[in-house]
Amino acid sequence: MKLHRLIFCVATLAVVAAWSVSSDVSAADRKAKVLFVSQSAGFRHGSVNRGGKELAPAEIAMTQLGQQTGLFDVHCTQDCAADFTKENLQKYDMVMFYTTGKLPIAEADLDYFFQEWLTQKGHGVVGFHSATDTFKDYKPYWDMIGGSFDGHPWGSGTTVTVSVHEPNHPAMKAFGGSEFQIKDEIYQYKNWQPEKVRVLMSLDMSKCKPSKPYHVPLAWVKDYGKGRMFYTNLGHNEGTWTDKRFIESVTGGIRWVMGLEEADATPNPELSAKENEKAKAAASK
Fold this sequence. Notes:
Rossmann fold, 285 residues, 11 strands, globular, two-stranded antiparallel sheet, 9-stranded mixed beta sheet, alpha/beta
């Protein structure tokens, strides 16, 4: 286990370092302060399982990304009761969620987060994978994140084909065009509100097994007051956190949330409608 974690750390550092050297990222005037919430109140993913170590694989990846790009500093927590409070949130510009279940956060602190903190210019959320498997019965949260986990017909060993709808979006440039393949676990959703989000990429049901007769988005963005939210379905597998494409995609998403790069966040429900029709046709064959 120790050797596995050491290999992961070296691989992650190599991916992040290679990206930062080859890119033209310049640090913001002031580094953003990021609170990375990785507490599991339900299923605990390997990517956020510290296993007795100081940090889990996803936490290592984001800590190193912040250091290598100079964009942000990260505080990782698996103790929401202590760290996700009105007083503490005021120290941060961004919150990252890789979480599950009903987190132990006081109602007053949740109210502050949704009604005041996230609505402020310069503030934002980045959600990874099971961020949509969090507070599934609490509407303010799933309304913010965009939907709720409703199963994963595409397991962690499945290679899926992904359609990139906006290849020039900062969070999508990393995938190099209109289509790519990746091995990762993929969620489908309930509480899905396409009229409130801008979908950036989706499963291509004509090239995925199983093929389902409905749209399954993989990443989207939305404005939240004057704040911003970026979510990616990817990140279940530990190997995803050493995939250069994923790290670059996350970096682009972070830059958009920080306001360092601009891109349209206007909801595109017409795209979801078209993807639904394409999925129905593919599944019927």
